[in-house]
Structure formats: C-alpha cells, structure tokens
Amino acid sequence: MFFQQILRTDIGCAAYVVASTDAGLAAVIDPRIDMVDEILDLLQREGLQLRYIIETHNHADHVSGHHQLAAATGATIAVSALAGVTYPHLPLHDGDELELGEVVLRAIHTPGHRPEHIVIAVIDRSRSRDPWLVLTGDTLFVGDIARPDLAIDGQEGAAALFDSLHQRLLQLPPGTLVFPGHVAGSLCGRVNNRMTGTTIGFEARNNPALQILDRQTFIRFMNENLPERPPNLARIVELNRAAEPPRMGTATPLTPARVRELIEQGAVVLDVRSPASFAASHIPGAISVALDGGQFQNRVGLVVPPDRSLVLVVEREEDAHRAVQMLAVIGYDQVVGYLAGGMAAWERAGFPYRTLPVLTVHDLARWREEDPTLQIVDVREPSEWAEGHIPGARHIPFYRLPERWTELDPSRPIALVCGAGTRSALAASLLRSRDFPRVYSVEGGMDAWRAAGLPTTRGAVVTA
C-alpha cells in the first residue's frame, strides 16, 4: 500500500493519497484547491492512476480541489449521499466500500461536525482484514474533537458526535492509526499540538473529550471555549457543493494610477507585507494582514468583505501569486491585481501615503505611567487575554473592532497590543481606516512585554 499525507499548516489542513501498489490505483481524500498541482506531480512520480476523489464532508473552512482533479484525471468524486452536492459524483452510504486492488476504502457515517460527515477506514487485504488506518476528516483530531456548531445547533451536533465517536470510531481496533483532516491552526477544532497522527487506542486513553462518558457533560464540554467560527463559511460550503469549479483571482500588475482608480470604485487594498513595511508607508485605508504572519486566510476572512474587489500590496511579485492562491482557499476570488513597483512606485507617482507609529514595550510602559488618557487595547484571543495582560488594558479582539470601535475615544491616543506585533498592525489598520488619528502598534506585543519583566494581571476585562 502507498500512503502519503499532504499538509498545509497555514490553517491546519491535511489531505491524503492512498493507493494500491499492485494495481497502481489511487484515491485522494479531502484535497484542498491549492494542493492540486502537488497531487498531480505525486501521482505522476509514483506511476499511479487516480480513480477516486473522496470528500469526508462539505468543508466550511477551505475550498476543495475536487473539480480540478477530476478534470485533470477523469477520476470519480465520491461524497456522502447526504451532502446535497450538485456536481457529478458517486454517493456514499454507511458501509460502502471502494476497491483499489488489495486496498479497500470503507465509508463510515460519523455525523456531528456536519450531518453528512464520513470517515474512511483503509484496509490492506494483503496484511489483514482489519482497518490499518482511518482518515477521520473533521471528527477525531490529535488530542481533540471537531467542533459541533458549524452546520447545525452546537447541542445537536455534540450529541451526534458523542454517538459517532463511541458507537463507530472507538469500535475500531485500538491499534488503528488515525490521520485527521486538520492539525494545529484550524478553526474547526481546538487542537494546538503539532502531531499529525495518532491511534484509536491512544486517543481513547488520553483525549480529554473521550474521557467524558456522560453524554450531557460531553455536550457542554464541546460547546465551551470554541475558537471563532471559520470566516466566510457559508460561501465556502456552497462553493464546495456547486456544480461549477471555483474561480481564482489574478496576480496582474497594476499601475499606481489604476490602483487609485479601483480604490475610488470601491476596491479594498489588502497590504500583505510585514508589519514593519506597513508601518513605514502604506496606502490610506489599506488593511494590513501579513502574508507570513500566521493564520493569513483566517485573518483576512475575519476583517475583509468577501464581496469586494481586492488590490494587493506586496513586497515581491511572487508574493502576489502566493497570496492569490491562498485567498482562493477561502473562496476569495475577487483579487484584480497588485500594485506594481510597490509603495515606492505609489510614492513616486505623488499619491498620498500614511505611516503607522510603532512603540517599544518600554515606550508603552513609560507612557502608561505618565498619561492617564492613553487607551491600551489588547487585540488577542480571549484565551490569550485570560493567561495575562497589561493592567488597565481593554480587551477587544482585532476582528471585533469593526463592530466595537465606538467603544474607543478617537480624541485620546490608542496603543494596540497583540502577541508579537502582527495583529496589532492589523488592528491599527482597521482603526486608521476609520480615521482614528492617534493609533500606535506595540512592537513585539505581549511576548516582548513579558520578556522585559513588565507587570501583567489576570483580572477582569476592562469595558469602560
């Protein structure tokens, strides 16, 4: 048997290629749209023919590449009969098996994360009639369970998950290898370790959620402290159900004059450079989401409208191509191009630009002691805030600023703090786009604050 895991750590996605080496036939499970070329290269390199493209469910956090793979190879797309898709497909029911020579792929219905969800048990008949491994999609993760609130009510979803786990997955042999559809970085669960595989037995003994044997306690646990819902999820699900393949934006070079024209027509400028580059010079109104700052797609989805044309500001041309591809993963297909020549060309054209003042943590500490009008806003996640924050700070996660900016006084200075300085630049760009005049990003964020030995507290959120 041939087996290959394909990872994308940006938002924690995993796909799989499984094949029978004797027959040369392969299946790919949960391929992301930006994995298509890599999968085609792998198949060619290994001399494999793709027979099936299997989706464990209608994904809500990323766009699938099943259309492109089917067009390139002639493979059949297989998905649960309950998925409600409109593209040509082989409907799968609980217990259905797909054969690839000596390798058998068995569908097991495991609702909870979504009603149509299936896992794929992989059997190599040359070794055993028992499953060797199981591809658990968005049901069982390493040390975690998939969230239950994306397709249905969280209570109903958790109840279905409880049954799927205890009546289906945990009935597999303890030694069965487990490979999930998500690893650390995904909003589809709370997993935060870097392991990419486990076993049924290990999870049965050590996964906190699987230690809860009371159904109601499990339901409560699974609905506590969930991460922010995957942005743009309804649109992504519909793209994954659709008969037509999703589109991608374009990395077309645009002159400064053309960029200015597009802005006047309502386009959003998405600046994907580093926070330092954004601080040095940026287009007024631009939104800063660093391409290499981690969680790029999730952060874009949380703050950038999905229905507006996008113009990119990049460091290098290759960054534009990479950003277009990464945005396509979350269904953002409206990129019209990038600013050719970057901010240097914009400034040479004589168009207005802005800078973002940056504070060191020592600057902030002194200012905090000397000026009672200073507003310190912590833009991290609630879990990060709870672990410790600057005394007197207010907590507003960066993605809540568009709806909560009225809580801040624009006549007073605002210092924005995150973990390391990336999200504070993003938050600053949101406030600057609303013409807040005195906004500062704190370099190094709470990491630098703690490293400097400055005081923290775990008190209540400051709301006034």
UniProtKB/TrEMBL annotation:
Give all residue intervals belonging to the Rhodanese domain. 263-355, 370-458
Metal-binding found in the keyword field: yes
Report the coiled-coil segments.
none
The UniProt keywords, alphabetically, are:
Metal-binding, Plasmid
Picking any one GO molecular function of the record gives:
sulfur dioxygenase activity
BP term (GO), one: glutathione metabolic process
This chain belongs to the protein called Metallo-beta-lactamase family protein
Q: Which organism is it from?
A: Thermomicrobium roseum (strain ATCC 27502 / DSM 5159 / P-2)
> Organism classification, top ranks?
Bacteria, Pseudomonadati, Thermomicrobiota, Thermomicrobia, Thermomicrobiales
